[in-house]
Amino acid sequence: MKNTAVTFQEMKANGEKISMLTCYDYSTAKLMEAAGINAVLVGDSLGNTMLGYPDTLSVTMEDMITYGGAVARGCHDTLVVLDMPFMSYQVSIEQALTNAGRLMKEGRGGAVKLEGGASVCPQIKAMTEAGIPVMAHLGLTPQSINTLGGNKVQGKTEDAAKKLLEDAYAIQDAGAFSVVLECIPAPLAEFITKALRIPTIGIGGGNGCDGQILVYQDMLGMFTDFVPKFVKQFGNIGEMMTKAFQDYDAEVKATTFPDEEHSFKLKDPEILQHLAKELRPEEAAGGEVDAEYLAKLY
Ligand code: KIV
């Protein structure tokens, strides 16, 4: 089944849960599609997980287009949502439209995501009218880490909860087809989910949301710089990778890899005997050709 922005709305109407994961490359995109994940987000969290920045602020449009294109090439039925990087949509509606258009045309996304509530509604409205499905993002919005004062749970007080509900209505009215709710108390996320027509996708928002998303390196135990409380590890691929790298290192050093099974044969072993006549002994490693090895050839 092809997943689109419309499918998302149908799934909410039918009470079906929506599964999302972040994704940043072609091979992983194919695995996620094979697993039946409904949508992947090429999140600007790639700034942390792929590029090693301490936050998402330095991610560029070019980064999003490169990683987005790779993921889109691996997905046929999975909806690919591309994050709009920091300061690619805040300056003006025109800037937002131009950049969202690039993510769709060059990054081959099926939708874009941006962070913020009422303040970005003019952008959401303009993009939606231009035929670009927009996913909104409320609660902990990592691009505002400097004004939020860190990665903190949002919407804990009555005023903050009211503001979140108002923002959720505003982005829905502006045309957003769904909204990520990040790091807000579970009862509030459920309340907002019930209040909205559009689906909510939770990350640290409890299980009352219409869908869930996790950063895939977090849920596979591949990224340990910081592990938020809401992350459940569904596998320890990080440990498996480290073990495989150690085994490879050991086999290379012990010359047990590559073995015959993983090597190619010469068509005719005599080729080397003929080739030995072309040797320049003074250029061999260590300044001379190994006599024992040569004797074997002749
Ligand atoms: O960039 C990202 O990965 C995100 C998710 C945390 C929702 O925005």
Key phrases:
single chain; 298 residues; alpha/beta; TIM Barrel; 2 domains; eight-stranded parallel β-barrel; 8 strands; binds 3-methyl-2-oxobutanoic acid
Low-confidence stretches: none
Cα(first) to Cα(last) distance is: 64 Å
Bound molecules: 3-methyl-2-oxobutanoic acid
CATH superfamily of the largest domain: Phosphoenolpyruvate-binding domains
Order of helices and strands: HEHEHHEHEHEHHEHEEHHHH
Explain the overall architecture.
39% of the residues are buried. Strand 6 (178-182), helix 9 and strand 7 form a beta-alpha-beta unit. Helix 2 (26-35) crosses helix 4 and helix 5 (93-105) packs across helix 6 (121-129). This protein is elongated. The chain folds into two domains: 5-233, TIM Barrel; 265-298, no CATH class. 42% of the residues lie in helices and 12% in strands. It has 13 helices and eight strands. It is of the alpha/beta class and 298 residues long. The protein has an eight-stranded parallel β-barrel with strand order 1-2-3-4-5-6-7-8, surrounded by seven helices. The structure holds 3-methyl-2-oxobutanoic acid (KIV). 3-methyl-2-oxobutanoic acid is lined by residues 22, 41, 43-45, 83, 137, 180, 182, 203, 213, 215. The site of 3-methyl-2-oxobutanoic acid (KIV) has 12 residues, from strand 6.
SSE layout and pairing:
Layout lengths: L4 H9 L4 E5 L3 H10 L3 E4 L3 H4 L11 H14 L4 E5 L9 H13 L5 E3 L7 H9 L4 E6 L5 H4 L9 H17 L3 E5 L3 H10 L4 E4 L7 E4 L1 H4 L17 H17 L16 H7 L14 H7 L1
Parallel strand pairs: 1-2, 1-8, 2-3, 3-4, 4-5, 5-6, 6-7, 7-8
Helix pairs in contact: 2-4, 5-6, 6-8
